[in-house]
Amino acid sequence: MSKRIYLESAKKWAIKAGIPAVGSIFLIFMYINSLGIIDSVQYSGDTICAGTLDDPCYAYLNLSFKEDVFIYPVEGVPDPWGRDTLFNFDPNVKSWKLERSWGKGWREIPLDKTCTGTWCGAKDSSGCKYSIAFREGRNYQLRITGYKKSPYDIIKWGAFSGVDEIDPSWFGIDRDIGYKEKSEITYTPSTDTICNNGECSLSLYSGIRNVYEDNTWKRIEDAKSLKGSDIECVVDFDGEYMAECLDYNYTHKKIKFKINKNENKNKDIPIKNFKISYNETTGKKIKEKIKEKKIKFKDLGEEIVLWIESEFGDELHFGENSTVIELHDPDTEILDDSYGRKSAADTNYGSDISMSITTGATEARSYIKFNLSAIPPEAIINSAVLRLRLASLDGYASSHNVSVFHVYDSTWNESSITWNNQPCGVNFDDSGNCNLTSESNTTYDDRDGDSMMNWDTTQMVTAETGNNISMVLTKDGTSGMLGPRTKENAYVFGRPWLNIDYSLPDTIKPTYSNAQTNTTIAGESILFSILYNDDTALESDGGYIFSTNNSGVWVNDSLIIWTSTPQWANVSKTLPNAGNRTDYRWYANDSAGNINNTEIFYVEITAGDTCTYSSGTWAVNFIDNCSITENVNLAGENLTLHGDVGRFDIRAVIANYDKIIKHGDGEIAIWSGGSITQ
Questions:
Q1: What domain range includes position 563?
Q2: What is the pLDDT of residues 332-388, one digit of tens each?
Q3: For an engineered disulfide with 498, which of 45, 204, 303, 314 has Cβ 3.0 to 4.6 Å away?
């Protein structure tokens, strides 16, 4: 017996069963499960992976079937979210493929195509009509191989297990810290802050990089919708063709199209998507048409709503005269970036999509300013790295050395800075506005194929924490021009980026609990104990001092250094005579110097047998439940009673006392024949 599984069969079953709309392959596996064909399912759990070619992410699903199953092709290629497939991804991946274990390796399963070999169930290479065959009683191991857009992403993958939904995760790696699941991550639309045990990494971006969606922060390229974020869908109407942005994300725009003139009815009206770039020398916009489709309106009032593929930075043109639709995001953490050129000394380049760094007759210096207000004022800067990605390279030298300098004066702005009014002076000699000694330099070799350049800016960021930070970039005497992208560049991920690693000082004081003693009897060794703990660490620079007061004078013990967190502070003493009171406390600090001293505790010192009086102060413990049946002469001494539990029964005469002192809630009862006389 066998089952032939077609998409139409699964759809009919779903309608009868009241199943909501789901992906096609997902629906097929639900249908298979409803038939009771799947015998058992196992799947892999959480894993840590970079999602790169060298370190792909893998997920495994083991299935066995009670009878033969044949799955037939479904049209369409699975997208980065896994829609129309057995799997789904949140957020989306860069790319992925589904594979089956075959021999000692793996073979890809193209579920949108027919099988062409024995590995997927065909008799030979001539192929068959189905995509894959699962045979009765056999165990099949499926593997999903995923590639991330960023190794730092945390991707939750899901699959229908035949019993319930499963959602293990592909955890990402952190920048120089560890793994994200161990870190506390704080996002704003234009910053990432990742902290682990007081060590933090802050990234400052230009434009919007993160949006809040589905109760979590996502990269803009991972969000299902960017509507309502700081990113706007802007429509430039031409008056003849009307368009309205209903929704949009990083790759698509949902547009409502209308026409405004009768002569445009029943005509093929173009919708064109253009990839935008710029000539790095002239600054002229370059439009490359990458897609075009046509729509037709029957009536003047007709509205056509379409999802159009158009990535962030693209321009969507509607109609012959071109109503233009594009996404705009505001400037954020990069406040200004521009350059001054010696050969055009009064020209401002603040709106250019790239900067210029060169020497010689066309010498140019590039200035950048960042907003550092996201750094806590108490932060200790461990490192700060400026990252620039080149848009252009012009010259014959294979190696270019570029230095970065701290600019003290941050009053300049990109809309007015020129070669002649630059803060560091045309001869680069204004030491009042600029540090004329470079903080770091980077050698760019155009033979290595990488367009990213990095500079250490730790010292200047440390000096400007809480303020804006300005810097200038200059080049050595080798020929050629380097053109890093600016915040105006359409390529979001190529804009300037400042990554700052900092430490937060430990300001949380240690805590204590469970203060206790093990005896109150005079002459015995008493153990004073308390448990200290700390959010960071007690050791190795923290410690405690134990202090006691028996006679009105506090006496401190020597300092004891903590060796662990948490740790008991235990001190042994011999108690003085019965009837005395001993006050005690601990003075303590953690490894960061945060102090938390205890309140003053006390212990009433008692005799071993508190019910029998010998001489001096008579110290009674209520818990002993004393019953005094013989007369007692205190000869002018005190009677002290302490404790919250128990009673003191007086059935005889207690005479000649000086004072009666009671501590606690214990009960005193005077019976017939008993009395207290002074």
A1: 511-604
A2: 788 899 999 999 999 999 988 889 999 988 999 999 999 998 888 888 898 899 989
A3: 204
Distance from C-alpha of 212 to C-alpha of 289, rounded to nearest angstrom: 32
Asked whether residue 443 falls in the same domain as residue 467, the answer is yes
- What CATH number has the domain bearing residue 547? 2.60.40.10
Residue with tokens 């809309």: 415
Q: What is the pTM of this model?
A: 0.53
Domain boundary among 550, 572, 604: 604
418 in the same domain as 283: no
Q: Give the model's pLDDT for residue 177.
A: 35
636 SS3 class: coil
Residue ranges, the chain, pLDDT below 70: 1-46, 54, 74-88, 102-105, 158-167, 173-183, 278-285, 331, 392-398, 445-451, 607
Instruction: Quote the pLDDT of residue 12.
Output: 55
d(CA 333, CA 549): 59
Give dist(CA 434, CA 457) in Å, integer: 14
182 falls within a domain: no
Q: How far apart are CA 364 and CA 356, in angstroms?
A: 6
Is 224 part of any domain?
A: no
Residues 413 and 554 in one domain: no
CA distance 508 to 530: 19
pLDDT score at 173? 59
The verdict on residue 216 lying in a domain is no
Give the residue among 57, 61, 72 at the shortest CA–CA distance from 38. 61
Query: Do 589 and 639 reside in the same domain of the chain?
Result: no
Q: Does the bond joining 64 to the residue before it have cis omega, within 30 degrees of 0?
A: no
Residue linked to tokens 């990402």: 172
Virtual CA dihedral for 405, 500, 494, 176, nearest 10 degrees?
A: 130
Residue with tokens 């200035």: 367
Question: Are 434 and 423 spatial neighbours (Cβ–Cβ below 8 Å)?
Answer: yes
